[in-house]
């Protein structure tokens, strides 16, 4: 047991599958989800002998530049593709087309917020496109190991996004992964569904003794004769929340190893979500273990300022920018702004709703009302029922009508929420439901009026007592109204009408 | 960077369009072993699956 203090140093490598039509170097469809194995391939992505690759997919390169622009990266004006050689059954050609020393995008950054909402800027080292590999299923036949291979995924364009080792906690690593997912979804680069393998996060972690290292030019350097502890990489992380859990587990494991005086080996470990632990997989390869060679078949590609300006037109207002604008323009809370901007489609829906409501009330009130209804009842019901929020499921004229009738106190909150739920659950027209409810309520008020009249006629003594100052008698008369309506009336409403008639 | 290598503009890269694929049968015809539409390869390789 030692009493040394350690700093946690995390870097994150994220792979995102691009939402292109075709693969990186051939014309096979890039969307293989739900397809039978080995039905989305051609001689190129199968790496059959004597087949020449096609030129890289321009859209994949453009999407890489788009993400680079959104993360404030420098964009290279000349790029080269390399072959990364290794021998494994998931790599049909025996090499993977990727980039090496000069990636398309470098030196970017993205802002994330910690538990106390303090801003941290995460530095991005590089973003480059490359090819995905085949899917392998590993099994045993008695003592014989084997792989089942599906080549559908081989050659699908990926974007590799690598941070510098400057993420200081598991929480920030999770927030960073979440921000990248948000960003690629906002920009329609990828659906980034981790369960479908469209996004993969691989953190690398090292713990160094406090005061014995420094961070310089994106690198961790030892001070004096301190020797750095090596990095541990974690794979098989299947969700954003698991990024935090896996890192937390690994940090604790490394600390306990160090405290026992053991050396940490550079290694790759796999996250076992079921057990909530990381498990040893193999010694980690250094970049030098792979043989990188310039691809002789892919020419150098020139990227001009005009190319970049054209791609920049696809930049939309990004989540962090939107969030700041909601706070300053609409006086929304930071929390509400964050919730509303998490998904681009939700934020667009919100702004349309707000536009309609602001014609009927001051903008700040409309902003607050739209936010309250969306983040409250609408989110709750859509989460519970697994319903997507869009203009088809909840038409804007209907929801704005509901909110306005609630604001005018024609509908109570409970009633309004009940109608919203009914329309979503039973796919009923919300506007019609609201109109029917208002109509019914008008009728029941007319009915109530007649009933109150008859109660007054039938109870002259109580009426007299009330008029002579016995105010408590009103309770008896309300009771009579409730009796006649079989309890279906709001007693407060009955009391109001009685008082109006007796005092008027 | 190799100065002698051919340069092309970004616009000269391939358009993002798809074309016909091989059938599963055509793919499996090239394989020594197959199982349920997959290519089957025997062998034991140290370490786990390298994803990308
Ligand atoms: Zn192909």
TrEMBL record, chain A:
Presence of the UniProt keyword Lyase in the record: no
Biological function: Allows the formation of correctly charged Asn-tRNA(Asn) or Gln-tRNA(Gln) through the transamidation of misacylated Asp-tRNA(Asn) or Glu-tRNA(Gln) in organisms which lack either or both of asparaginyl-tRNA or glutaminyl-tRNA synthetases. The reaction takes place in the presence of glutamine and ATP through an activated phospho-Asp-tRNA(Asn) or phospho-Glu-tRNA(Gln).
Single biological process term from Gene Ontology: glutaminyl-tRNAGln biosynthesis via transamidation
Catalytic activity from the UniProt record: L-glutamyl-tRNA(Gln) + L-glutamine + ATP + H2O = L-glutaminyl-tRNA(Gln) + L-glutamate + ADP + phosphate + H(+); L-aspartyl-tRNA(Asn) + L-glutamine + ATP + H2O = L-asparaginyl-tRNA(Asn) + L-glutamate + ADP + phosphate + 2 H(+)
Organism in which the protein naturally occurs: Candidatus Dojkabacteria bacterium
Keywords: ATP-binding, Coiled coil, Ligase, Nucleotide-binding, Protein biosynthesis, Transferase
Molecular function via GO: ATP binding; glutaminyl-tRNA synthase (glutamine-hydrolyzing) activity; transferase activity
Quaternary structure, from the entry: Heterotrimer of A, B and C subunits.
Class of this enzyme: ligase
Family membership noted in the UniProt record: Belongs to the GatB/GatE family. GatB subfamily.
Stored HAMAP family: GatB
The protein's name: Aspartyl/glutamyl-tRNA(Asn/Gln) amidotransferase subunit B
NCBIfam families: gatB, PRK05477.1-2, PRK05477.1-4
Residue span(s) of domain Asn/Gln amidotransferase: 348-502
EC number, UniProt record: 6.3.5.-
Coiled coil, from the record: 413-440
From TrEMBL, chain B:
GO MF terms held by the record: transferase activity
Keywords recorded for this protein, A-Z: Transferase
Annotated GO biological process: regulation of translational fidelity
Tree of life domain: Bacteria
Matching Pfam families: GatC
Keyword Transferase: yes
Name used for this protein in its record: Aspartyl/glutamyl-tRNA amidotransferase subunit C
Species assigned in the record: Candidatus Dojkabacteria bacterium
Lineage: Bacteria, Candidatus Dojkabacteria
